């Protein structure tokens, strides 16, 4: 969720709560004031009634009280309390049988020595209509105010945060391989300027470190290849010499194997560094399933030598976007791994669809932990011909180009499965 959307939702929820509480409080205040006015007028009617009874010592229907309805009835038994009280009541209209709300004041007055209960009522129809009109008007204005404030706040926030989104857009398109430095625009807001300054310094430092690392790896690889090639050439000459003893030949053979191992190690680490730094260009949509089939066909002699059988369960296209060179390396490492760790008379099985690519092979029981299989220099076995970078390179390629690779073993069947990352998984990796 975007920052502005999150802020607007919180602001809207808070405003709705405040406006509802305000509307409820306003309604209660209006109702209290109107009821207070009605009760005050009923109290005045009560005093007029008591004055009338005190002067005339009797009571009869009088036009003096035409404004309100009044009911006087003798009390057979004295009540426990003679205090006056107010209450709401409904009285049926004589004309249309409609129940009309009234506010009623009840009190007790002695007339001719007999205690009478007196109820004076005042209609609340106009009061209710007034409350409804005031409430509707208030709700309408508060709703319009809420909508207007929300709209204005959204426009204002969008304009205020525009420099931030401009900075974010330029950072997204910033590429360490590009020679152009990161250029961030200035803003009227101090905090955004400070943020841009920090990001500018970080980007410059990253470009400098990246260029230094890139030059170091290239120089180191280039400088190491020459002496290693010279060592291999001299060792090969020594091996072909007829004057060497058996022990000397064994030592020279060991040196030759170690130098070749260093060469492969140097090439593997350089390749990993280039993949991590995204130095491979020319991303294309490549069918990895077809490429894997072609690679298995190229290795037909090796497969026949190790008496391995290839089974293709399904051969649907599994396409991924990555450089051609890395696609070939990924497929080659998977096939080499399936052949190297297979057993005589075993099989290699390919299963692919639009959603996944699965390569399985027979082999011995896994010795190391499955989750550590893709770590660098993690080897399954003690053979000297492996440097432990093949699956690490595969994992790095998948991580760099929005692919995921998983491993599962089932009764000696080793399965490597490649699939596309879901958007949520891709965001987690970026985070």
Automatic annotation (TrEMBL):
<keyword id="KW-0812">Transmembrane</keyword>
<keyword id="KW-1133">Transmembrane helix</keyword>
<feature type="domain" description="Histidine kinase">
    <location>
        <begin position="219"/>
        <end position="426"/>
    </location>
</feature>
<keyword id="KW-0808">Transferase</keyword>
<dbReference type="InterPro" id="IPR003661">
    <property type="entry name" value="HisK_dim/P_dom"/>
</dbReference>
<dbReference type="Pfam" id="PF02518">
    <property type="entry name" value="HATPase_c"/>
</dbReference>
<keyword id="KW-0418">Kinase</keyword>
<dbReference type="GO" id="GO:0016301">
    <property type="term" value="F:kinase activity"/>
</dbReference>
<feature type="transmembrane region" description="Helical">
    <location>
        <begin position="130"/>
        <end position="152"/>
    </location>
</feature>
<feature type="transmembrane region" description="Helical">
    <location>
        <begin position="12"/>
        <end position="34"/>
    </location>
</feature>
<keyword id="KW-0597">Phosphoprotein</keyword>
<dbReference type="InterPro" id="IPR050428">
    <property type="entry name" value="TCS_sensor_his_kinase"/>
</dbReference>
<dbReference type="InterPro" id="IPR036890">
    <property type="entry name" value="HATPase_C_sf"/>
</dbReference>
<keyword id="KW-0472">Membrane</keyword>
<protein>
    <recommendedName>
        <fullName>histidine kinase</fullName>
        <ecNumber>2.7.13.3</ecNumber>
    </recommendedName>
</protein>
<dbReference type="InterPro" id="IPR003594">
    <property type="entry name" value="HATPase_dom"/>
</dbReference>
<dbReference type="InterPro" id="IPR005467">
    <property type="entry name" value="His_kinase_dom"/>
</dbReference>
<dbReference type="InterPro" id="IPR036097">
    <property type="entry name" value="HisK_dim/P_sf"/>
</dbReference>
<dbReference type="Pfam" id="PF00512">
    <property type="entry name" value="HisKA"/>
</dbReference>
């Amino acid at each position: 969720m975007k920052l502005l959307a999150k802020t607007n939702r919180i602001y809207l929820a808070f405003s709705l709560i405040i406006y509802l509480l305000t509307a409820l409080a306003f309604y209660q205040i209006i109702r209290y004031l109107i009821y207070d006015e009605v009760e005050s007028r009923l109290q005045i009617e009560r005093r007029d009634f008591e004055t009338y009874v005190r002067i005339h010592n009797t009571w009869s229907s009088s036009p003096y009280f035409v404004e309100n309805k009044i009911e006087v009835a003798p009390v057979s038994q004295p009540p426990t309390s003679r205090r006056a009280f107010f209450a709401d009541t409904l009285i049926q209209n004589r004309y249309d049988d409609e129940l009309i709300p009234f506010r009623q004041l009840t009190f007790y007055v002695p007339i001719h020595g007999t205690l009478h209960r007196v109820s004076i009522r005042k209609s609340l129809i106009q009061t209710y209509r007034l409350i409804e009109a005031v409430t509707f008007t208030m709700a309408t204005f508060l709703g319009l105010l809420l909508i207007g404030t929300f709209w204005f706040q959204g426009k204002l926030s969008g304009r205020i945060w525009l420099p931030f989104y401009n900075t974010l857009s330029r950072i997204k398109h910033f590429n360490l391989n590009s020679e152009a430095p990161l250029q961030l625009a200035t803003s009227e807001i101090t905090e955004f300027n400070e943020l841009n300054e920090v990001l500018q310094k970080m980007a410059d430092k990253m470009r400098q470190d990246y260029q230094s690392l890139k030059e170091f790896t290239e120089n180191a690889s280039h400088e190491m290849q020459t002496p290693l090639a010279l060592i291999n050439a001299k060792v090969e000459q020594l091996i072909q010499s007829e004057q060497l003893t058996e022990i000397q030949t064994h030592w020279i053979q060991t040196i030759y194997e170690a130098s070749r191992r260093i060469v492969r190690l140097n090439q593997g680490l350089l390749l990993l560094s280039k993949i991590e730094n995204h130095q491979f260009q020319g991303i294309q949509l490549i069918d990895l399933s077809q490429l894997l089939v072609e690679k298995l066909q190229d290795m037909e002699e090796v497969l026949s030598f190790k008496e391995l059988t290839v089974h293709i369960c399904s051969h649907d296209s599994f396409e991924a976007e990555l450089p051609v060179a890395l696609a070939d390396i990924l497929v080659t490492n998977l096939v080499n791994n399936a052949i190297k760790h297979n057993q005589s008379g075993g099989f290699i099985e390919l299963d692919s669809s639009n959603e996944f690519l699965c390569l399985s092979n027979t082999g011995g029981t896994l010795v190391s932990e499955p989750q550590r299989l893709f770590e660098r220099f993690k080897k399954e076995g003690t053979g000297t011909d492996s440097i432990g970078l093949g699956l690490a390179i595969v994992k790095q390629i998948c991580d760099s180009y929005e692919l995921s690779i998983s491993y599962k073993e089932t009764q000696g069947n080793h399965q490597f499965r490649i699939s596309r990352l879901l958007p949520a998984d891709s965001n987690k990796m970026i985070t």
